[in-house]
Amino acid sequence: MDLIIRNGKLRNREGIWDIGIKDGKIAAISKNISEKAEQEIDAQGKLTVPSFIDPHIHLDKVNIVEVVRPNKSGTLKEAIEIIWDKKAKYTTEDIVERAGDVIKRGAINGTTRMRSHVDVDTIGGLKPLEGVLAAKEKYKDIMDIEVVAFPQEGIIKDPGCEELMWKAMESGADIVGGMPANEHTPDDSRKHIEICFDIAEKFDADVDMHVDETDDPFYRTLEMLADETIKRGWQGRVTAGHTCALAAYDDHYASYVIDKVKKAGIHMITNPVTNLMLQGRNDKQPVRRGITRVKELLEAGVNVSFGQDCVKDTFYPFGSADLLQVALITAHAAHMSMPHEIEKVFDMMTYDAAKILRLENYGLEEGKDADIVIIDAFTVNDAIRLQPARLYVIKGGKIIAKSENKRELNF
Ligand code: FE2
User: Of 46, 186, 216, 293, which is most buried, counting CB atoms within 10 Å of its CB?
Assistant: First the structure.
């Protein structure tokens, strides 16, 4: 063994366990591994889990809030428009530096995989993609990053964007993004979705779109996306992020769409930190929560995860690239308070996110990748509630981060 974790508490097994790691894989899990390894860690009975996955973040836009004007209306529209000037002047070095800060914070906090959307449009061209690809390469030892070509400014609405989307996929993007609600008409939204699927078919790529990020129930592109997913046979390969309008629909139409989402095998990602901040801005009391119907989707058997989405950008001024913080906010926003619901929130940032990325070697089992985090807590509830130190973060069998809780009370 190269590394043995002693005395870990695992979520799905009673008692305390040793985990043996060899060649970047989990080689053994047993009550007591008799052999010795070059490196050994004592987990002291603390929660030992597969490392976290952030399936929805925008690394090209992070840490921008101090160099652009503030978002006065607090809306999505203004958040997008404020960035235009900065986006036109992006440099690779600037993006690598800003994204690097978030990648390093994420790793220290136990995240070893991210799926980053990257703007592809006629304002920034392919510069955001170049920057994030450079960051992906620079930090590949601590973070696996999937890149989504994201037409933030629309496709039909932004002549020249379609060509850039094709080029982005040729230049190293992994996933075809989309934002069909950001078009002038429903017909254009439909065309937007068709173009994205044409590109996905050509590159045999998965699809991950920003869908109906609005409180306005007029926007119905989630249903369009579900229809196109089934038409193209892309079930299980499509993800819809945000989907705030689903919460604004009447219950009858919402359950009809959720049924279609389930049939289409669409994965859903809620981004509560951003949407609690952006949505409901024009509501008088009661102000809507602005996030999608998480519990109804879960009850329907749809796979749901959550992402950090934003760190210090025009959409959201906070964010620490700590998924336990996002988990805490998700639990509040989605009313997930029962013991089994709190466990489910933890699944959403681990196993359920792994389903979105279609990872075959994820999990705390023999033969799986040795991507592991040891949290300074004994229970999932305490991990989410206290957001304690991640004592060790292991990626590919190597310790990439160590932390300790140094706070002391003299009492
Ligand atoms: Fe997003």
Answer: 293
**Residue written as tokens 């999990």?**
363
Distance CA 93, CA 123 (A): 18
Residue 213 is a catalytic residue: yes
pLDDT of 407 reads 82
Residues 6+ apart with CB under 8 A from 364: 10, 11, 12, 19, 26, 29, 48, 49, 50, 372
pLDDT averaged over consecutive 10-residue blocks of the chain (411 residues)? 98 95 98 95 98 98 94 93 94 98 98 98 98 98 98 98 98 98 98 98 98 96 98 98 98 98 98 96 94 98 98 96 98 98 98 98 98 98 97 98 88 91
Catalogue all structural domains in the chain, each as residue range(s) with its CATH number.
3-51+362-402 (2.30.40.10), 52-356 (3.20.20.140)
Please give the single-letter amino acid code of residue 137.
E
CA atoms within 13 A on the CB side of 344: 20
Q: What's the predicted TM-score (pTM) here?
A: 0.97
Ligand 1 centroid, distance to 56 Cα (angstroms): 6
Distance 175 CA to ligand 1 centre (A): 14
**Cα(18)–Cα(8) distance, integer angstroms:** 6
